[in-house]
Target: DUF3592 domain-containing protein
Amino acid sequence: MKKVLALFLIFVFSANSKVNALEWAYWFVVHEGKVYEVKEEESIATNDVGKVIGKVETRADDYTGDYYGNASNYYKIGTRYFEINGVLIKEAIAIETRPNEYVKAIYKHDVPIGNKIINIFSFNFWMISGLVFFVFLFIIVLISRQR
Model:
């Protein structure tokens, strides 16, 4: 009877496990809290591309939709962002798809507030907080030994 019950429970839990992946509405990149929709059909001439302004640092999660920092749901980590000469960064940026090949990404909206909170509590924040904590702890130990 115990074996039957165990097999039944295994069947129930395995039958209900589903894996879903998001289907993104469009390719995007995030730069400094702004989401830009990539327009693959709009290439940018090399002489219209200005200085580097950032790069993809994280990938958007295909299962939860979460992303933080300078992220993309399509481009690899390290893909660089550039300003477009004569265009404000808050309107559009250029994405380097290959060496000396660029496409336009148009501003869509600011990053949702939930993702901004994730940015605050990112890995770098915790690393700096931990370092500060240990420095204070070290100072306290030194002061207590001198007394």
In short: The longest strand covers residues 34-44. The CA atoms of residues 65 and 142 lie 47 Å apart.
